[in-house]
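Researcher: Next sequence.
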Amino acid sequence: MRATMWIMSGGRVEVADDALILVVDDDARLRDLLSRYLQENGFRVSTAESAADARDRLRVFQPDLIVMDVMMPGETGLELTEMLRRDNAETPILLLTARGAPEDRIAGFEAGADDYLPKPFDPRELLLRIRALLRRAAPAAAVEAPAGPLALGILHFDRARGELRGPAGVVRLTGGEAALLAALAARPNEVLTREDIAAALEMDEAGERAIDVQVTRLRRKIEGDPREPRFLHTVRGRGYILKPGY
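Model: Next structure:
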């Protein structure tokens, strides 16, 4: 059960630092350092030394966010991320890795991660990224949004609740997918550049390059045929546009 508190400050969602973070890393020294640093900044922290260990903990509690190393013996962080997304887990995931090439970051986003931070990193940057991800995962009721649902064929996106529903009920979205859809839905029928989207999602330059991956993932959820999109269109050389309709 999650216990994170959310407050509004000047129209912006702020995170009360009692969020529960699960740190998954086979390096005991780094795991302890991260745990101590996050606790010093007000977060509650649980740790796991492997993907299997993390899986055991996730059977007992649901963290507000997972910080996970990619390269671990046995099951990797990428593989665990893919498994969690297949199981429709919506918990934000921030991957840590010594491999920071663009293709490695893209692989992380394709697996379903919400952010990706290469080692070595400044702990202050990690803290900023964690807070940004938690804000993106904030309950939509706490965020000001245009009134009225948007029709996407047989699906409807409730902008006030941040919820996508269809005939079978709620369509599960990852934190990144939900944040992307909310950003596009806030300005329907308007072209948003990658820079616009990155700013709305509080992503850095590296995250901006991964927006295409998130768009691809979102299309799989809202389009009948993602190869011939009806609602989420690419505007070559400019960005993306969401065109609601039945």
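Model: Residues 123-136 form the longest helix (14 residues). Confidence is low (pLDDT under 50) at residues 1-14, 140-145.
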